[in-house]
Amino acid sequence: MQSQPPPSVRTVAIPFADLKERGKDLSGKIEEGLGPNGLGIISISDVPDFPALRRTLLRLAPRVANLPEDVKEQLEDPDSRYNFGWSHGKEKLESGKLDTFKGSYYANPILDVPTTDDALLSRYPSYCRPNIWPADHLPELEIAFKALGKLMLEVGLMLARHCDLYVMQHGVGTFDGESLEQTISRSRCHKGRLLYYFPRQFSTQKEEGSVSSWCGWHTDHGSLTGLTCGLFMRNSEQIPCPDSAAGLYIRTRDNRVVKVTFGEDELAYQIGETTEILSRGRLCATPHCVQAPSGENASNVERSTFAMFMQPDWNETLKFPSEIPYHQELIPPNGALTFGEYSERLYQTRPKCLLPLLPDRLTQVLDAERESPREFQPLPFHYIEVSKLLFDHARDDISDAYLVRSLIEDIRDVRFHKVESGLETISGRTHAVKLKNLSAMEVNIVRPFMVRTLQAFYKHDSPQMIQQADNAGSRSTPVTDRGPREKFITNFLLSFTLAERSEAQVTSMLVQRDLRRR
């Protein structure tokens, strides 16, 4: 028997004219939409200029996704954990597989350079790094992105003021700390995200039959998230949503799943975990996901949308109540963390893979290894061992597993060949060999060969060693020769021990003349 689809629920809507009145009592609407029994989402209607700004930006999403691959690679920022610029296939679905369903473009629409402090850039890269814009290939993106992001922040601040009034009127007096409006207004780390959902036949994964088929279940951890209604297109033409079941789904406080709808010219806002914690549950965050359209009418359909994440500044101190509904294990005994510290602790709890198992990335590494016969590309120090463990125990979680395995084996073979070629150049006149970026397995392969080579050089160059070989029955070795020999071999082995760093560097000094001294 086929199960009934989840019910569809309309968001609580507030006219913009009412929202902008600072003295207007909207506590009833706030309670209905964002309170303990609400959906955690509310929509604002009749926002001036919003419909045009929405259409302008969302129509650019497919153009970003269809930029040449080399251009998109230049727009990526791995140092920010792909939280600035272009990102595709870097996040994971609920199944643990990499998400190729959608691509994202991240930027701070308020500040291009939030800070120039190197310590902050290193500590909070997801918030502090500068924006990246495709100025040479799609200059209109920056203009449209900033215009919509700033408008959504302005409207969000108006909503935050009414949320503050509601919280003060109902049970908790004030927030623990500053008000939501003040916290958001002085933050430097707001983040906009332009999302493009690829047509299903262009994705490498299939997740049919799930309400989370386009975006997995999650709860925003910031303060307030602004959302636009999705824009559907086929062959560059805007169309209505081709499947009534597609769209945003929310899990309510009583664990029901409902489909949530709001008008395409309305601006929606969802509460984040941080606001729920600091309001002591008077404002509620709810898990949500996105279902992709299915059926014949969904063929070749793409979807674009935009989210504006409003969150505290990374230096904003959050005073957490003694009883909180989320992440209790992350909160220190004094109950205080900056938002940056809280976010980093959340990030550290995520399951992470130590090896970048993306075919495109591995192909780039392989090409670079082949083009540079004397240089080794920087790779994780234990990439061979880690990849073997992943293939033995988590093969199903790796996209294109056979291709990835083949690429790793090719990389390994090319690097081993370069090691062998480098060692073939060692002769009696060799003074030094420098092999940078070797991995642990490669170091272990080189080590015994190099030790035997040193011993052979010493034996052939030392008259005492030759005499020792001729007198096989004698076990005595000139004491004067053991000192420098042992010292040299010890230092050589020590260089391999010191090589166990993220960028392995193996340096050996082969100085035969010194071995004959004394």
User: What is the number of strand segments?
Assistant: 19
Structural class of the helices, strands and pairings?
alpha+beta
The proportion of residues forming helix, as a percent range, comes to 25-40%
Uncertain runs with pLDDT below 50, 5 residues or more? 203-207, 352-356, 472-518
Largest sheet: 10 strands, mixed
Give the DSSP E fraction (strand runs of 2 or more residues): 15-25%
Shape: elongated
Q: Kindly state the mean pLDDT as a whole number?
A: 79
The number of distinct helices, counting runs of at least 4 residues, comes to: 18
Outline the fold blueprint.
Elements: E1 8-10, E2 12-15, H1 16-19, H2 27-34, E3 41-45, H3 50-58, H4 61-65, H5 69-74, E4 85-88, E5 102-107, H6 118-123, H7 125-128, H8 140-169, H9 180-185, E6 191-197, E7 215-218, E8 224-227, E9 231-234, E10 237-239, E11 247-251, E12 257-261, E13 267-271, H10 273-278, E14 288-291, E15 301-310, E16 317-319, E17 336-338, H11 339-349, H12 359-371, H13 383-393, H14 401-424, E18 432-438, H15 440-461, H16 463-470, H17 479-497, E19 504-509, H18 512-515
Parallel strand pairs: 1-12, 2-3
Antiparallel strand pairs: 3-13, 4-5, 5-6, 6-15, 7-14, 8-13, 8-15, 9-10, 9-15, 11-12, 11-14, 16-17, 18-19
Helix pairs in contact: 2-8, 3-8, 12-14, 15-16, 15-17
